[in-house]
Amino acid sequence: MIYGYVRVSTDKQSTENQRFEIENYSKAKGFRIERWVDETISGTTNVSDRQLGRLLKQIRKGDTLVTTELSRLGRNLMQVMSFLHQCMERDIIVLTVKERYELGNNINSKILAFAFSLSAEIERNLISQRTREALARKKAEGTKLGRPKGKKTMQVRLSGKENIIRKMINEKCSMNEIAEKFGVNRQTLRDFLRDTFPDWRKYRYIK
């Protein structure tokens, strides 16, 4: 059995790109994916609590698992190595699209998997460290960190609703009616009008 495994961290991301890459890879290799496993979950979550963990219990000797890259399997060295170790011990082959790895139960595969996982974890730690240092520097310089109050509410709840809002205003709907429809307060609506419509001033006096 040949399995395709795709994972994204949040529901705002799509697994379609990963599927596309795996399908193209499998066609080039002359095989097809017989079963797909998709999940939306952080790679830091323990493998046993993910669909990947359930798949590991079902997959059998001689089966193949295809994923876009080793980082889809986990977000730290021990997770990835533990998973690969179990696969190699059971003669399960792991193929990665981007790195072009073919990992089986041999010493070269184990060395390669270890080296990649270690370098990936080091790079993530360095990025995290640089981010913390940059934020600390900005804070020390007096830069106000974080999102402006109310900005997310406007962007998430009102963005893309410009035509509807203008139509309601033209129909003489009150500010309260419009704000209630979109689940925001009057001030948020006023700020949105000011930031969105060049002629926003003519809406300032809507009751």
TrEMBL record:
<dbReference type="InterPro" id="IPR006119">
    <property type="entry name" value="Resolv_N"/>
</dbReference>
<keyword id="KW-0233">DNA recombination</keyword>
<dbReference type="InterPro" id="IPR010921">
    <property type="entry name" value="Trp_repressor/repl_initiator"/>
</dbReference>
<keyword id="KW-0238">DNA-binding</keyword>
<protein>
    <submittedName>
        <fullName>Master DNA invertase Mpi family serine-type recombinase</fullName>
    </submittedName>
</protein>
<feature type="domain" description="Resolvase/invertase-type recombinase catalytic">
    <location>
        <begin position="1"/>
        <end position="142"/>
    </location>
</feature>
<dbReference type="Pfam" id="PF00239">
    <property type="entry name" value="Resolvase"/>
</dbReference>
<dbReference type="InterPro" id="IPR036162">
    <property type="entry name" value="Resolvase-like_N_sf"/>
</dbReference>
<dbReference type="InterPro" id="IPR006118">
    <property type="entry name" value="Recombinase_CS"/>
</dbReference>
<feature type="active site" description="O-(5'-phospho-DNA)-serine intermediate">
    <location>
        <position position="9"/>
    </location>
</feature>
<dbReference type="InterPro" id="IPR050639">
    <property type="entry name" value="SSR_resolvase"/>
</dbReference>
<keyword id="KW-0229">DNA integration</keyword>
